[in-house]
Write a structure and sequence with these properties.
With 431 residues, the protein is an alpha/beta fold.
Length: 431
């Protein structure tokens, strides 16, 4: 009986993509972690795989169907539903087109309306579990032929519930939408989310109260800011039909894994690191969450992160020496700049590898509102005349006081007398 249950599971039962990954940002795939779904990618073993394996096909055949609970008036917007599916798929394909512009990516979708979906009852499941393997295979061939003929199946059920995605060994990726048939409210982001699972991405962040996040976050426990693959989508993000930088990197990672020799412990992005769980790679997350939010995502997420995590390193610098304040000033995120400058630990004049401060970047954008937020920058001691520049005028000012004691700013090294060493310091600081 146990063997039959195992066979039945392989043939019929879907593998749901859900994980509780406590990362502040980042991406996770179904191939990561100790609970990853182990898939043999050999086509001889697995005829239908995640959608990532079919992105170079000339076209996809997509089966869509209604739940048996849908009334006639719920079935009047076929074209809108097909358009929503195509739109959501293309959202995931866009990063791959940018990644590999010389190789064609599927952009033709042929739709087939399939018979209504009726879930198997518990009694029917138990009856199937008791069938000999040859009868079970016959049932499969008779009942799953229509499903197996497509690259993707999307089911629209009219009873409100929890939408989910699934993949089986003998049928293609499937998405089950339990949100009715009108494209309104949260329908589109949920559809994009579930298609992310069909491609091979997993959920990130746990549900509220199920698992705490790391780093002291409270309100964002269960909410991965800006990522459409979050188990809880952030209600404040108005880009409900878009995917975030984390999402883009997740699909790019999957592509590199499937078409290259990428290992599950390689995040491939220089500013990401592996999040480990019990010595197993679990997810990829940015090294500096606040920098990532200030650089890539809407203002609301950086503000929420600052509010929720008082222990965050507000002055962290990335490989280019850039801080969150640098990026907020560069991308003219006024509210983020203000929040950062109001933080008690902020160091507003840190320099990046190019010697630029956040104020320098604000000046480059000529955003007067942001420029006015900065405190008066500290003067260089070599700027003897305090005009904001070190140039020949400062050298002249020092020379005019040569040999004097208690000469104020002309005594650059503060040793009590103006001499050749002060001239050398000013000359070395020109520009």
């Amino acid at each position: 009986m146990k063997k039959m249950r195992y066979i039945f599971s392989l043939l019929l039962v879907v593998c749901l993509f859900f994980s509780a990954t406590p990362v502040g940002d980042g991406f996770m795939t179904a191939l990561m972690g100790p609970h990853a779904i182990e898939i043999n990618w050999d086509p001889q073993v697995l005829g239908h795989k995640w959608l990532i394996s079919r992105v170079h096909e000339p076209e996809w055949k997509i089966g869509y169907r209604y739940g048996v609970d849908c009334k006639p008036e719920d079935r009047q917007n076929d074209e809108a539903l097909k358009e929503a599916i195509s739109f959501s798929i293309r959202r995931w394909l866009e990063p791959l087109k940018e990644l590999n512009p010389d190789r064609p990516i599927v952009d033709k979708f042929v739709y087939e309306l399939q018979a209504d979906f009726t879930p198997l009852s518990l009694e029917e499941r138990e009856e199937l579990e008791g069938l000999p393997i040859d009868e079970l295979e016959r049932w499969r061939d008779e009942n799953l032929k229509e499903i197996r003929s497509v690259d993707l199946q999307v089911t629209f059920e009219c009873t409100q519930g929890i939408s989910y995605a699934a993949i089986g060994l003998i049928y293609p990726p499937a998405v089950f939408m339990q949100r009715g048939t009108e494209i309104k409210g949260g329908m589109l982001p949920v559809l994009i989310h579930e298609l992310g699972h069909a491609f091979g991405l997993a959920d990130t962040y746990a549900r509220e109260g199920y698992m705490r996040s790391r780093g002291g976050l409270h309100r964002t426990t269960g909410i991965q800011p800006a990522s459409i693959m979050s188990a809880h989508y952030h209600d404040g993000d108005k880009r409900v039909d878009n995917i975030s930088e984390d999402d883009k990197r997740g699909i790019i990672w999957l592509y590199n894994y499937f078409y290259g020799n990428l290992g599950t412990n390689d995040c491939i992005f220089a500013d990401y690191i592996i999040e480990y769980f019990v010595e197993e790679p679990r997810a990829c997350r940015p090294k500096h969450t606040l920098i990532f939010e200030a650089k890539h995502n809407p203002t609301i997420h950086a503000l929420q992160l600052l509010k929720d995590d008082p222990s965050i390193d507000i002055n962290a610098q990335d490989v280019g020496g850039m801080t969150a304040l640098h990026y907020a000033a560069m991308y003219e995120k006024e509210e983020v700049v203000k929040a950062l400058l109001d933080h008690k630990d902020i160091k507003p004049f840190l320099q990046n590898k190019e010697g630029e401060t956040a104020l320098d970047l604000a000046l480059a954008t000529n955003n007067t509102a942001i420029i006015k937020m900065f405190p008066e920058p500290p003067r260089r001691k070599e700027d003897v005349n305090r005009d904001g520049e070190v140039n020949i005028l400062d050298l002249v000012a020092v020379a005019s006081k040569f040999g004097e004691k208690d000469a104020g700013t002309a005594d650059v090294n503060r040793d009590g007398v103006v001499d050749i060493r002060d001239l050398v310091l000013v000359a070395g600081a020109f520009g």
